[in-house]
Write a structure and sequence with these properties.
The complex is a heterodimer of chains A (about 280) and B (about 270).
Chain A (H helix, E strand, L loop, with lengths): L1 H5 L3 H37 E3 L9 E2 L2 H6 L5 H33 L5 H7 L2 H4 L3 H13 L6 H25 L3 H9 L4 H30 L2 H7 L6 H10 L3 H25 L2 H4 L5
Antiparallel strand pairs in A: 1-2
Chain B lengths: L1 H32 L1 E2 L2 E2 L2 H41 L3 H10 L8 H12 L4 H8 L14 H25 L3 H9 L4 H12 L1 H17 L2 H6 L7 H12 L2 H30 L1
Antiparallel strand pairs in B: 1-2
Helix pairs in contact in B: 1-12, 2-3, 2-6, 2-9, 2-12, 4-6, 6-9, 7-8, 9-12, 11-12
Classes of the chains: A mainly alpha (about 280), B mainly alpha (about 270).
Chain lengths: ~280, ~270
């Protein structure tokens, strides 16, 4: 097929040129649908005044940025809380998922597929009623409105990615390498630490990034368990938007957007095909 | 024997977190739905049906319509990526379609709220292009806004799964059909889509469940009645502290998603058998 398109006849080349008309139209429409809303967000972050029926903002400037990032503004507080919670969530999720993933990948477990399925449960049920009841439970034991409470709620969701990707990452490592290390006298922990763990690292990094983003972007759990004592970026975005302050809401949205887009651009480097093909097996 | 024990020991902490912080509260929500003053009963459900019957139907319609559109668009994108004959157009599409995938729902809610508003960029561009007059401009911030937000966010995810599955099917059948003179649309519908049906179904069911539990999009785009059940649950808790009706509404949405999950399980069982 590539041979044909590499050496087209005159008539065929003309036909291909004509086909670019609908093709370009559809691709341009798609580009507008995807980037139009993003462009609108960017405009809002630098708009000083913008109201109907003006197509573009009347004044541009960064005065809202300086207000948002001033030491007294609550954006810095939310940003710190969000990053702290996300880092702690990654630590908790991976500390639980690395042993679990190793066991699921390497050791003979009874009911293995059932256990793997259990980690999918948080993804398979609408989690709003669960958060509502966790909040009620946490309220009784004094965890509501604390960083610990929010981290625990995020970790439950993070475990879905962490366990599944960690299992896939450990299955992708050749077990014979570990056996070789054992046969030349390394203990089981040493063989794990020096051989299996470094080889599984790219997959584990990918799951860490997934968990980090999931925590950074999580709204519902933070809304019920964290608010109003623990301020987080998604909560700030929501309350600024609800108050009609689209500039602050858009700047917060942009702060949440940058890590997500950055991740999209690098995800293929971490999630290799050999790991991806083992997810869920 | 000891290896099995060790394995269980390693899995146990993670499993305990899921059980304690997800399954127990889930059970509490099911039980809580039947808790009424001074005992158990169906009072919460009676109240839920009375107050939120319209919103329940609205939720099911919106999520079903979004799922349908997500399916159609992902087949179209995956199909073009697989069958497209122009390498440059395929490359552009491959680069283009994935952008919204990693954008969080709360951000999707915010950017579409500003984009689709009466004075949003969409209406402004339509007005300056002369398609509509300023007086005709209306906000899309009702059920249409929610559907647009869901489709915008979920299509890349399902399309990624579907395109991956389409890439791994046997090219021979496609080439054979093409040599026999079948159009690309016919190849897509009769040869490609049936072979990726399972992947498509998994992607759509995951999207369905996700959309059923998203709170931020309905809150940000359309919080007035009729709205989605998630917004109603949050309202019940925040305004009245009414856990009974909130849990009953939660159970209703659970039953709806279980119905969908059952379709999936039945399908995979057939596949495994």
């Amino acid at each position: 097929m590539s041979l044909v398109s590499a050496s087209p006849g005159i008539g065929q080349r003309f036909r291909i040129d004509l086909w670019w008309l609908p093709r370009a139209l559809i691709l341009a429409l798609l580009a507008f649908v995807i980037f139009g809303p993003l462009l609108n967000l960017l405009l809002w972050t630098v708009a000083e005044r913008w109201y109907f029926p003006h197509v573009l903002p009347l004044d541009y400037g960064f005065s809202v940025w300086t207000r948002v990032f001033s030491p007294r503004g609550n954006a810095m507080d939310s940003l710190q809380n969000s990053i702290l919670v996300a880092v702690l969530t990654v630590i908790v999720s991976l500390a639980l998922a690395i042993p679990a993933g190793y066991a699921l990948a390497r050791l003979k477990l009874p009911l293995r597929s059932l256990i793997l399925l259990a980690f999918l449960i948080p993804q398979a049920f609408p989690n709003l009623p669960v958060y509502v009841n966790i909040a009620r439970l946490f309220y009784q034991i004094g965890l509501n409105g604390t960083i610990t409470g929010v981290v625990l709620v995020h970790a439950v969701h993070g475990l879905v990615y962490a366990v599944w990707i960690a299992t896939a990452a450990f299955s992708a490592v050749d077990p014979e390498l570990e056996q070789a290390a054992r046969s030349i006298g390394a203990g089981p922990l040493r063989a794990f630490r020096d051989v299996t763990l470094p080889l599984a690292m790219p997959g584990l990094m990918a799951s860490a990034i997934f968990v980090f983003l999931e925590s950074l972007d999580e709204f519902t759990g933070s809304y019920f368990v964290g608010a109003p004592d623990v301020n987080m970026l998604p909560l700030l975005l929501y309350s600024a938007g609800a108050g009609g302050n689209y500039q602050i809401a858009s700047i917060t949205a942009l702060l949440l957007l940058i890590p997500s887009i950055g991740f999209m651009l690098i995800v293929e480097r971490f999630l290799k095909a050999d790991v991806l093909s083992r997810v869920g097996h | 024997m000891s290896k099995r024990f060790l394995g269980l020991l390693l899995v146990l902490p993670a499993l305990a977190v899921i059980v304690l912080l997800f399954i127990v509260p889930l059970a509490a929500s099911v039980v809580g739905a039947f808790e009424v003053e001074g005992g158990h009963g169906f009072g919460n459900f009676v109240k839920s049906v009375e107050l939120y019957r319209g919103d329940t139907i609205f939720t099911v319609l919106i999520v079903s319509l979004s799922t349908l559109l997500i399916g159609l668009f992902s087949i179209a994108i995956g199909g073009y990526l697989t069958l497209g004959e122009n390498p440059r157009a395929v490359a552009i599409l491959r680069w283009l379609y994935r952008w919204p995938m990693f954008i969080p729902f709360i951000v999707v809610g915010q950017i579409l709220r500003t984009f689709l508003a009466k004075n949003g960029l969409m209406n402004n561009l339509l007005i300056s292009a002369g398609v509509i007059t300023p007086m005709q401009a209306t906000a899309f911030l009702d059920w249409r806004g929610i559907v647009i937000a869901f489709v915008w966010k979920q299509v890349p995810f399902v399309a990624l799964l579907v395109a991956g599955a389409m890439a791994s099917i046997d090219r021979g059948t496609i080439e054979a059909a093409r040599n026999l003179g079948a159009s690309r649309l016919r190849i897509l519908i009769e040869i490609v889509v049936p072979q990726v049906a399972t992947t498509l179904l998994v992607g759509l069911i995951l999207s369905f469940v996700t959309m059923m539990s998203v709170l931020s999009v309905p809150l940000m785009i359309n919080a007035q009645s009729p709205t989605m059940l998630t917004a109603d649950i949050a309202f019940r808790i925040n305004a009245y502290g009414d856990y009974g009706v909130a849990n009953a509404l939660g159970l209703i949405s659970l039953v709806i998603t279980s119905g969908v999950a059952w379709i999936y399980l039945r399908h995979t069982m057939k596949e495994r058998a």
